[in-house]
């Protein structure tokens, strides 16, 4: 999966497009898109041997902003209220409900 993303130029290391064989070093910043969020990972250290997925967080730091994750939550909420195909245009009442839902979310943000 990561190899395919590199081949499609979706992964950058320190601002440069990365190939699948690109070596990374401590302090490198890796940027990629996942779940409609541009994520930024900083490499803290390189392990001597392979490690389990639970231990990977020791060697990296996630520098993705909290706003990006909030945006993802809003996208998930909006999909719950998405109209099914073939149901036609929203009625006036549906439109008011959608607007009201959007206003509630905006009012909750600090």
UniProtKB/TrEMBL annotation:
Organism domain of life: Bacteria
InterPro entries: S4_RNA-bd_sf (IPR036986)
UniProt keyword annotations, A-Z: RNA-binding, Stress response
Region: Disordered, residue numbers: 82-110
Keyword Plastid: no
GO terms assigned for molecular function: RNA binding
Biased composition (Basic and acidic residues): 94-110
Biased composition (Basic residues): 82-93
Protein name: Ribosome-associated heat shock protein Hsp15
Source species of the chain: Flavobacterium omnivorum
Organism placement in taxonomy: Bacteria, Pseudomonadati, Bacteroidota, Flavobacteriia, Flavobacteriales
């Amino acid at each position: 999966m990561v190899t395919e993303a590199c081949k499609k130029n979706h992964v950058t290391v320190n601002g440069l497009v990365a190939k699948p064989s690109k070596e990374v070093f401590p302090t490198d910043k890796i940027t990629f898109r996942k779940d409609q969020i541009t994520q930024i990972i900083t490499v803290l250290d390189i392990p001597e041997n392979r490690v389990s997925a639970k231990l990977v967080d020791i060697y990296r730091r996630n520098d993705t902003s909290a706003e990006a994750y909030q945006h993802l939550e809003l996208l998930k909420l909006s999909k719950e209220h998405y109209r099914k195909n073939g149901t036609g245009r929203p009625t006036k009442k549906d439109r008011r409900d959608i607007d009201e839902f959007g206003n509630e979310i905006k009012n909750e943000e600090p």
